[in-house]
Each structure stands twice: as C-alpha cells, then as structure tokens.
Amino acid sequence: MSEKYKTKDRDGIYFISISVVQWADVFTRREYCEIICNSLAYCHKEKDLTLYAWCIMTNHIHLICSSPTLANTIRDFKKYTAKELFKAIQQNTQESRKPWLCWLIKSAGELSSKHEEYKFWQPGYHPILLHNNYLVEQKLNYLHRNPVTAGFVEEPEHWYYSSARDYAGSQGRLHITFIQ
C-alpha cells in the first residue's frame, strides 16, 4: 500500500471510500444498507468512530470520519460487514441475483492473494486526510452530491442512506458530528 493512503494523524479527519469487489451493485436493497448502518452505529458506540458525513451508494460507501485507531476500525468494519452481507445475500429468498453475487464474491476470494473463502470488499479504503477547510467542503459536497450526480435523486437530502438529511436540518439515519 502506498504511503500516500495511510492514516498518519490519529486526530485527523479522513475522507474514505470502501468499494464492493468488481463494483457490483449490492446496495440496491434496504436490508443490505441496514447492515452497513447498524455496523457504523456499532463502530461509533463501541470503537470510538466519529462520523461527520456518510453516503451509501449502490456499490461503494463514502465516509468522512475520525478515530484514534481508524485503520483497525475500518479493518474490523469491513471484516464484519463482509461476513454479514454475504450471509444476508445467501439467505435472501427474494434476491434474484443470488447465484451471480455469491459466485462473484467467492471468485474474488479464490483469486485473492490469501485465497479466502469469499471476498466482499476491494482491498484498502483510500484515506485522504482533510487538513484544511477547502478539502473538508470539497469532500463533503462530493459525498452528498454523489446520489444526485448518479441520477438517483434531485436533491442530496432526498437520499435516505446519507448524512445529507442531517446537513439539511432533518434527522438522518445515523448519529453524526458536524464539522466545526
């Protein structure tokens, strides 16, 4: 992993992206998005993760967050959610893409350097330190406008799985801390 994408500042606020293997559109079902939200809530409560902004897209997640142990927290988050999401896909009787998604996730595991049983997430999480107000605003706008740019909604706050609601003055799905 490049030195460019490591968390060096334990107190820093980072913009991170976590992507599904092969950019598969998994988060098109509420059940899968709820696994992500519940896990983020757990990390906030139990692992000292501070969320400033977040957005779940169909095949990736963006977070603006901080934690004294960010690398470990994200590692644990990815490990837990990979297991839970794979299990949810396998057990979902309504999932029309189940054979394909299971094949994709298992194939990614077999092809990985560790030859795992399955692999849900792409390696890494691409942390970018937001060391000034310009970067904070840029990434916050990018994150919240992602569903608008993708053509899913007309206004950022219309996307349920995002902190844009909080920033627009409504109650969002997860607890966030506003950036000062």
UniProtKB/TrEMBL annotation:
GO molecular function terms attached to this record: sequence-specific DNA binding; transposase activity
Top-level taxonomic group: Bacteria
SUPFAM superfamilies, A to Z: Transposase IS200-like (SSF143422)
GO terms, biological process: DNA transposition
One of the Pfam families matching this protein, by short name: Y1_Tnp
Coiled coil: none
Occurrences of domain Transposase IS200-like (ranges): 9-146
PANTHER family for this protein: REP-ASSOCIATED TYROSINE TRANSPOSASE (PTHR36966:SF1)
Listed name of the protein: REP element-mobilizing transposase RayT
Species lineage: Bacteria, Pseudomonadati, Bacteroidota, Cytophagia, Cytophagales
